[in-house]
Amino acid sequence: MTGTLRRTTRVVSALAAGLAVATSIASVGAAAPKVSVRTAQSEVAAIRQVRWTANVSVSFARGSWTFRSDGLPASNFVAADYAVPANPQDVSASGASVVSSASILRDQNYQFTLPRTPVYTRSVTAANQGPIGFLLDGAALYNPFEANHATVATSDNFIASANGATASFLDDCDGHPGPGGQYHYHGLPVCLVDYATGARASVASVTSLDGAATPGVTESNAASRRPVILGFAFDGFGIYDNVAMNGATVPVSSLDACNGIFSPVPGYPRGVYHYVLENVKGVRSSIDCYHGVVSSAYTSALQGALDVGVAPAPVSRSDRVATARSLAANSGEDTFLLDMLTLSGRDRYC
User: Fold this and answer.
1) For residue 34, what is the DSSP state?
2) pLDDT for 135-149, tens place per residue?
3) How far, in Å, CA of 131 to CA of 305, rounded?
4) Element holding 18 (H helix, E strand)
5) Which domain, by its residues, includes 223?
6) 111 domain-assigned
7) Cα–Cα distance measured from residue 48 to residue 201, given in angstroms and rounded to the nearest whole number
């Protein structure tokens, strides 16, 4: 009986070893699952790679994650003073005032909940005015345009002097104060690339007004030689700087209409869809549409709230708030929408 048991054990062990070898051979020969732009992929690996600043916290739930921040970047990320146009519909130095960042920037108390796995769509949704996403320092990202929907922020930077102080419209990080003292970006924040990589970027922002005018230049992140994740758009897709995995600059010509691309980034060696911020003057400096599922009702309502004097007929604040509450597409976005709807005219800085 004992001899039979030993022989049986040896046979089973041999069969198991043979199966393991066969499985190993099959695994080597099997092709890896194909990943394309429309393949649904979780963003958790990307979220965990972000070097969030101390004023940001993130938490995870089943199928979603939540971003919270005060919206106020550290002082080394912003300028001491900003030039503010007299009329947000006319971005120019004529009549512009100069205000200190300490007096204009305000706590935003952001809370946005996004899907862990964004859904790519063939059709696109135009990027609304106001926030279209958020970056690693807790601040918002805007589309390329100012409040008049025509002026491109990175192309129309200017300097103004008032009360003995001189300041620019956009700072060297492509950001400035917005409605309600909301700091936001319109292009690639070189300062955030510096922070995320722990090294100094090789070129300055195209909107820098230090010294001679800076032409449209490429951003080469020699410190990391790979893409740096800077934040996320409201459809859930990641936002990166314009460096490819081989260290080369990602050209604007390789991006789709929304400044998106499907290519490898850290954590996604077979590629993932993501947005790219280019260090260029013009409409390609930021995201101008969403290629993922996002609440069009929310973006339309927010756009309408920010249209100064464009609405065909006046709408009472109570009606607008009721409309916003009825959207209920995303609790974080709707909370922000309500805040935007109650802004007074004097708070619509840019």
Assistant:
1) P
2) 999 999 999 999 888
3) 13
4) helix 2-29
5) 44-347
6) yes
7) 23
